[in-house]
Amino acid sequence: MDLWRLRVFCKVVELRSFSRAAAGVRLSQPTVSSHVKDLEDHFGCRLIDRLGRSVAPTPAGELLYRQASDLLARYDGIEAEMAGYQGRVAGRLVIGGSTIPAGHILPGLIGAYRRAYPQVTVCLLVGDTEKVFFDILSGKAELAVVGGRTADRRIVQQPFLTDEMRVVVPASHPWAGRKTVAVADLAKEPFIVRERGSGTRSALEESLAARGAGIEGLNVVAELGSTEAVVQGIKSGIGVSVLSSMAVAADVRAGMLKALALRGVKLTRVFYLAFLRDRSQSPAANAFCTLIAADRPK
């Protein structure tokens, strides 16, 4: 057993796929499978269940993943601290991102960061807002950009960017020619909502509550687990939804979707830089925070 095999194994668990893990670590899929098989032989038990196109850790695999994640985080911390001692920014930086930041904000920031600090390897963990907070608390992610708030005082959240949300409909919808829509009209339309724990849903609930309304007053026909799934549901005619302007900008420009304001409701949300209050940041994380501060809109 060695650290590299453990890192490959963790990537398989996180991405739920041998092929995606192989792309993530720049190895062939057979090599990734061989590394996992070596670990299974070493521990004498199955670690990964193959479930068609997806994979999932067995109970033994879950145990190994938790322990390996902690070990790799400590190892990466040693590398970063030693590089910092020598005046270099190097090592591995794990960043968490909820759906919108991970898809539309962080890629550009990570690209700029890598150009400035090419000796740092960046790993982006993607999930809904609640999962990202869990990754911060568990030490898997050193910092994150999320679209929701937490009441957990162990986590510091600094406002980073404000986003406008809009009612999103297909280009063929009767509302497509409008600029705004009333809450009463929205309540009559089949509506697709994000899952509980997502920042998009929380922001919608808060915006409606400020007007004395709520999601329970909408005609919810589907609850989907990602922004992309909601977008595809809108295109497929399942219903309409409220989504980030950034998430649908390309489809709006292409004429496939229309984005409308919700009359009388302030549909805005704030994205936050989040990190553990009592965790000493690595030089790599400090450099990323400095870059974000410089990039933050004034």
TrEMBL record:
CDD domains: PBP2_CysL_like. Pfam families: HTH_1 (PF00126), LysR_substrate (PF03466). Residues 1-58 form the HTH lysR-type domain. The keyword Transcription regulation applies. Keywords: DNA-binding, Transcription, Transcription regulation. InterPro entries: LysR-like_Sec_metab, LysR_HTH_N, LysR_subst-bd, WH-like_DNA-bd_sf, WH_DNA-bd_sf. One of its GO terms (molecular function) is DNA-binding transcription factor activity. The keyword DNA-binding applies. It comes from the Bacteria. NCBIfam families: LysR_Sec_metab (NF040786). Belongs to the LysR transcriptional regulatory family. This is Transcriptional regulator, LysR family.
